[in-house]
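Annex B, item 7. Sequence and structure tokens for protein A, then protein B.
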Amino acid sequence: MIKNSTLAYEDEFLCERAFHVKDTAGRLRPVTECPVRTEFQRDRDRIIHCKSFRRLMHKMQVFLAPEGDHYRTRLTHTLEVAQIARTIARALHLNEDLTEAAALGHDLGHTPFGHSGERALDYLLPEGFRHNEQSLRVVDYLENEGEGLNLTFEVRDAILCHTGDEPASTLEGRIIKVADRIAYINHDIDDAARAGILNISDIPKEISELLGNTHGQRITSLVSATIQNGIDNDIGLLEPYGDAMNKLRDFMFERVYRNQTAKSEDGKVVNMITFLYEHFSAHPDSIPKEYMKYAERDGISVITADFIAGMTDRYALGCFNELFVPKVWQYK
């Protein structure tokens, strides 16, 4: 059977520190065993088929409502992270299925309008808002009509720890943080160049000479440096490549992420999210019933954030227009 061959492959080819699916700590709720897929493969499939994953295609990555078909969305970002993470896991003889599932699920809780939406909710909620924690909340509670996806502990842990100071409990989970950074820095360079915000030649020479001058060269350099670093200490980049990536990230914050042209509409996003949050907090009966399942336990502020965080960019705009923009009156 395919499943048995996968288990045999893990026993024979994975390295000593790799996580084997047979050792999983299991799920929040027990399930009937699948005769074909391992538990991590099932997690991957549950994520790919869920509504939150599909909605990522209509959530911006960096540029607000960009004109053009080739700018990244949160979905294409996720796919690029998964590709980079799988490559690293395969080369290091770690568990590729665990890595892939975590990569595909890491941004399920991201807000509409990227980090601008996240900052707005973080300011509005008394307990704050972080998209990695929301991603875990999506897979544990909100998906599947309020039943959650019931993923394995290791995938849930990797989703939660893909950002922040707490490392994932598995090496596979720690790959996601590195792959996420490699992906977004490089595809944001590509999108910023397409938007005319920077020229590739603007990248400091010391970085380009080490990492390369093209999108593919930079990713290959950083992925190779991660593989060459190995797993003796932790997942990371061999120096001087790690330092170069940090400098490239600083350059992107200076030239793109805080760019006044690219971010000129961010204040409007914050205002819009604030209006929506205040409205739905005051009118929880307008929130879909699948979100209200946990209202008594978690409170209306959290449920309101759940609803807004799950919106796509265009759905949030539609809600705002419906609620706050006057309609043209026509005599009939």
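Protein B:
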Amino acid sequence: MDKKRIIGVVVAILLLLAAFHWLSNIIVYTAVAFLVSMLGKPLVKMLHEKVKIPFWLCAIIALAAIIGVLGLAVWLVIPHFIKQAQQLADIDYNNLSAQTSLLGEQLLEWLNRKGVTVTSEQISSYSSRAMGEIWKHTNIQGILTSAASKMSSFAIGLFSVIFLSFFLLRDEHMFKKMLFVFVPDRYTVRTEKVLKSIESLLTRYFVGLLLEVVCMMILISAGLWIFGIDNALLYGCLGGLFNIIPYLGPVIGTALTCLFAILNNLEMGFSMDLIWTLVKIIGVFTASNLIDNFVLQVTIYSNSVKAHPLEIFFVILIAGTLTGIGGMILAIPFYTVLRIIAKEFFKDTKFVRELTKKM
């Protein structure tokens, strides 16, 4: 490969990384719309071929069906969400303060028995200073502004996804037509081959990811329900959704569920009953994620995108370091696209041949 071609490859990769960083929201909206269109295409095709309905009406019906299913799922979870909110509202915070003080005294007594001399006055003074620093650096107005901004971004994102999904369902070749305007004629055939490979692999990946989330929701909800944990369905849904975030998601889901369990069971005090409840929650999440790691993810992340698990791990780690949680979620689809493009246009390079030999 000559120097000019190498420079071209490096520049192309840098441009793609820059686009991934600066246009991450647009990429997310497009990816979600792509997933929605993949789910709706079979219904659109059936309605158009069997009932002879125009494509635009088929797209509307398919979107309405998908939104209806999601709405039904939310409707099933809402009562549990309301119950959880009511439990949090009914918390006796005076009792919480007393329980915390008791725990502090027990901890102080244990430290003194171990030879660590700490007085309650020192702990109180340190706690007051820490709370003062936290409060001083807490910008309530900024928090409210940020919450309003997040709600606005969510509304924009929802509209964007619905808008893009409609046109992708109405005309499945729309994206291809737009892209080919910028592709030189000599690369048209190869570009079309790349697009077919991308669509095939990403469809398998996104559908597999959706199945993984649903399976995790069922596993966690069933496990918590078997052990008698209140609001099992709500915690299972949260755990399944957080599982979209590679590696960090299960930790966040487990921590949130444990926090809710502590707040909901303050009447137990910091007793063995509460500890046993937390052990059951952590056990259910751990068992579910072991099944996910060794069964579900192997199928989805390795087989669907045809990459080695260690390769996937490093890609997610690098993406998370560069762009945070959003990058971790998008890392695998983005990496898959890069590998497909590299295989088609730079297959003479040894590095590319090794990287894409399973594809």
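Comment on protein B: Residues 350 and 356 are 10 Å apart (CA to CA).
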